[in-house]
Amino acid sequence: MNRRLSRLGLLLALAALAPAPDANRDRHVGASYQVPYRLTDTNHFLVRVRLNGKGPFNFLVDTGAPALYVATETARKVGLEPAKDTFWTPLDRLDFEGGATLTDLKARVEDPFQLVGMNALGLPGASIDGILGFTVLARFRLELDPTRDRMTWTRLDYEPRDPPVPDRRPGDGPPPELQAMNLLGPVAKFAAALMGKQPEEELHPRGFLGLELGEEAEGGIRIDRVLPETPAAKAGVQAGDQLVRLLDRDVKSVKAALGTVDEIRPGDQVPLTVRRGSETRELTLTAGEGF
Amino acid sequence: MAPIMTLPRCTRFRFTAPLVVFVLAAVGLGSVLAAAPPAAPAAPAAKASAKGKTSEPRGTVPFEMLATNHMVVRTKINGKGPFDLIFDVGAPITLLTNKASLESGTIKADAPRSFLFAIRGESEVKRLEMGNMTAKDVPVIVLDHPLLKAMGEMLNRPLDGIIGYTFFARYRTTIDYQAKTMTFEAVDAPVRNLMKDLPDRLAGPRVARHRMLAPGALWGLNVGEPVDGLDSPGIPILSVLADSPAARAGLKPGDILTTLDGRWTSSIDDAYAAAVGIAPGRDTAVVVLRDGKELTVTVRPVAGL
Q: E strand or H helix at B72, and its extent?
């Protein structure tokens, strides 16, 4: 009973301390945002955020989490000092990729075990830097369409309440189930030490040639323009040339041409064949950077 | 809707120790669980509609918010119930407790059980009714998750499972916290089977996968890495090719590219990744900072490479 009363006290104190409703809120109500997301290898939806203008960071969209969690490492990177006396740490600004912004939020700086474990094993294929739970998500109507690469978030006129603050007396730990769960992080780290961490996916920008392609005709593609000072210009390709072969493959459409060079990287040697009038020329380009 | 994948029967065990760790760990329910919230009276959740004798490819499902800020949906499983399931977009799998699985006939009483968390492995719910919709053949993991149990005890009401990714990957899902409803519309999208993929991944070699970022059109831009780390609003445009779509739109070297087609460009990879999906001829919004001021231009990239 004592416990419950003290909890009530805490809740009331918290309510009194709650900041005034965000004055900017009404301005955003009804606004719709296209939020790019990625689905990790572990079937988690990640969106990108900036914390107090710094980032970007990958945050998990998690209706199963009650609040906003910022991993301790993430908080350190953005200079967010975890509150010492209160459960929540104030966060001035949270920007979402896609354009939405929330201000005057409360975050919990903590490393939930699921992040520690998954990140240690490298399972998601990307680092997860925090969790967007109820207190953030409930401010939006969320549309998740697995056939599209963006979610639609529409700002609601709704201020979610904060979840209760843990009522821990000195010496009291979390419930045994939770203590057991908190062991999972270190267990995963240990497993990672034995098995090795799955490295993150490596991304490679494609190399650049500098050709503007036009109509498809006569078993090739007309080169409409050769952009100045690009690999194509340096190798002597001219506007009006007919591109017939690329990387030793016949190219009869723009789509085929793009598909052929999908894998080239800056610095790669790219042989191509053009027809100029009655002449056929074999040229070799060195792919550059750009798009 | 057609079954998207065939699942091994529930008697099959593919759980390796790290996988068990993962299943438990990935289904987090957040850790404010340490807070025993005021025990809420076991309020009846939205009543399951009597409708739903036929399979609906779409539907509206009311949900209830628990004192712990979790969404709970009242369901009928294989005509039995009600069962209260937590709807968790952060859970990679759908799981059901042993009790609910037995009562709903999802597993047989003699199904073998692992000593650890009473895992019985993979199974399938034939009919899952919620609100005015019925989902068929929903893959589930039968497992007594300790957090679910702890939460149920704190709230003084049983919680029977968690609806996760394997369910909502089949639908266009809209969650409206204000109206306290979810709507589902079936889409034809692949559903990944984590229970199959993950052990393969765990056992696989520790080499990074590679992905090429091949822009779908020609822009005439070359960009550099950000200069201020986490404080960078974007990346510098190093050069703009004369006579290119980027030049025609008025972009200039020295501009800081912050957004391309609604995606942040915080690295060179970001800029390429944003350009991957943009076909020639599509008007695309590009945001740059020039002399500290934000400027939005429209670029129409052309066919080229």
A: strand B71-77
Could you tell me the two tokens for B248? 């025609």
- Tell me the shortest Cα–Cα distance from B232 to chain A, in angstroms: 8
Q: What is the pLDDT of residues A181-234, one digit of tens each?
A: 566 566 666 666 666 666 778 899 999 999 999 999 878 999 999 999 999 999
Could you tell me if B276 and B284 are in contact, meaning their C-beta atoms sit under 8 angstroms apart? no
Tokens of A112: 């939930």
Please state the pTM of the whole predicted model. Answer: 0.83
Judge whether A250 is closer than 8 Å to chain B, CB to CB.
Answer: no
Select the residue of A3, A160, A168 nearest B177 (Cβ to Cβ): A160
**C-beta atoms of A117 and B212 within 8 A:** no
SS3 A226: strand
- In degrees rounded to 5, what are phi and psi of residue A162? -75, 145
Phi and psi, residue B93, nearest 5°: -135, 170
10 Å CB burial of residue A259 (0-12, 13-18, 19+) is: middle
Question: Is the predicted ipTM greater than 0.95, yes or no?
Answer: no
**Could you read off the pLDDT of A133-171 as tens digits, one per residue?**
999 999 999 999 989 999 999 999 988 877 777 665 444
Question: Chain B window 233-252: which residues touch A at a Cβ cutoff of 8 Å?
Answer: 239, 241-244
Q: A198, A52, A202, A75: which is closest to A131 by C-alpha?
A: A75
A77 SS3 class? helix
Contact A145 B172 (CB under 8 A): yes
**Tokens encoding A216:** 């498809």
Query: In 3D, which of B260, B24, B42, B35 has the Cα closest to residue B148?
Result: B24
Q: Do B201 and A123 touch (CB under 8 A)?
A: yes
Q: How far is A222 from chain B (nearest CA, A)?
A: 11
Kindly report the nearest CA distance between residue A105 and chain B, in angstroms. Answer: 16
What is the rounded average pLDDT of the residues B75-99?
90
Length of chain A: 291
